[in-house]
Design brief:
The chain has 16 helices and 13 strands. The protein is of the alpha/beta class. The chain has 3 domains: 4-199, no CATH class; 207-275, no CATH class; 281-404, no CATH class.
Length: 413
């Protein structure tokens, strides 16, 4: 279980935030000057912030962006001490380059996964000095667009539905109204945005909540169980990048008093957690496959009914259920050392499934027929390596079956 990760984009950053339940991400630095926020990690000089234009270029050139991902991004508008600041008199001591760094960095996150939950906030001691600068307006426009890109159609934003000629004035007005702030108090609005985006990701099916972890967190908050909250309970969810587990105290770090959620914080966290959309289609797929494999149509007639559920892409769940059932049947057969290894067609016949039914799931994703799927699974089993890294949903269901319901209680990959 981890804390949320925070990236600072600031040429004169702080070395720590006012809460220990958010982790500052450190980035490689390329330079020789001394700084209070630099540390050496595995022989590489790292800093708690993205500080200069040159450093950002090197992150791109060397592929050194944080691999573990970033949840919150705090963007300082003004880069007054950036040695690469332009010489233009109007921008001297008022360089809005932080907005450019922020727009580039966030577009990288956003482009990698549309549903990726992240929050950011823009801060400055005084953003008014470049509120009318066209570059500042341009960069601010990108940030606002990314903020609003995943809002539901009925949710109003700054840019939606506006005439093209209005956009510079809207961005300028946003900068003019920006409250003076520093990183120590800029993370709260970013955290609030993160919660909204995470909630939306669950609602749209981009991320799938683990039901048992969700129940545990909701119960601890409902009972105001101080001992469990101090020990740490977290939400767990699955997404395209794998499984995440985040401490609820980190998600509600702005509601903490010391190490514990205050009474009002527990109330807010409880209402938020209980409002989350729980689409347990992975759990349903496991239950369905167990039932289908144990009571095949050879004995009991038709396969179990499939309600009108949707998978993570919004597609019908039926192809996924057939794929889960077939893959579990394959693994069940291969785990039995004294049992004859069934061929791909025989595996399906015992379930009264057909290749076209199973391939409706596999072919769009890995472009392989069922026979080739079984061959790849057999080779992966021998090498102890799951052969389809993109099929995380299928792997999750099969792993749950192997470790909880198979006779051997082990997942061999």
């Amino acid at each position: 279980m981890r804390k949320l990760r925070v990236l600072l984009i600031d040429d004169n950053p702080v070395s720590q935030l006012e809460t220990e339940y958010l982790d500052l991400v450190r980035l490689p630095y390329f330079g020789e000057d001394e700084s209070r926020d630099q540390v050496e990690v595995e022989g590489v000089l790292r800093r708690s912030a993205l500080r200069t234009w040159a450093q950002h270029l090197w992150l791109w050139l060397e592929g050194l962006f944080p691999r573990e991902g970033v949840d919150l991004v705090l963007i300082d508008c003004r880069f007054e001490e950036d040695v690469y600041a332009p010489n233009d008199r109007d921008l001297r001591r008022a360089d809005p380059r932080g907005l450019l760094h922020g727009a580039i960095f966030l577009s990288r996150i956003f482009g990698g996964d549309r549903y990726h939950p992240f929050g950011f906030s823009v801060y400055s001691q005084d953003a008014r000095v470049f509120a009318n600068d066209p570059y500042a307006q341009t960069f601010m426009g990108y940030l606002l667009a990314m903020t609003e890109a995943t809002l539901p159609p009925e949710r109003a934003g700054h840019l939606k539905g506006r005439d093209e000629r209005e956009l510079p004035a809207i961005c300028s007005d946003y900068l003019l109204r920006m409250a003076a702030s520093v990183p120590a108090d800029a993370w709260q609005p970013a955290l609030a945005m993160y919660r909204r985006r995470l909630e939306e990701a669950f609602q749209w099916g981009g991320y799938i909540l683990d039901v048992e972890a969700w129940r545990s967190v909701a119960e601890a908050l409902r009972m105001r169980d101080r001992e469990r909250l101090l020990a740490g309970v977290g939400l767990v969810w699955r997404g395209p990048g794998g499984q995440e587990s985040v401490d609820i105290r980190s998600i509600f770090a702005d509601r903490l008093e010391g190490d514990i959620l205050a009474e009002y914080g527990c109330k807010d966290a409880q209402e938020w957690v209980e409002s989350l959309h729980v689409n347990d289609y992975l759990g349903f797929a496991l239950d369905w496959a167990i039932q289908a494999n144990a009571f095949s149509s050879v004995v009991h007639g038709d396969l179990p009914d499939v309600p009108k559920m949707r998978d993570i892409t919004g597609a019908s769940l039926r192809p996924f259920l057939h794929a889960c059932s077939a893959t579990i049947a394959w693994l069940d057969n291969r785990l039995q050392p004294d049992q004859k290894q069934l061929k791909s067609g025989d595996l399906l016949r015992q379930l009264d499934l057909t290749e076209p039914q199973v391939e409706r799931y596999f072919k769009p994703r890995v472009k392989m027929p069922w026979g080739k799927i079984v061959q790849a699974l057999d080779e992966g089993l021998e090498a102890r390596s799951w052969p389809f890294p993109d099929l995380w949903e299928l792997r999750s269901v099969v792993q749950d079956w192997a470790t909880n319901f198979s006779a051997f209680r082990r997942f061999p990959f």
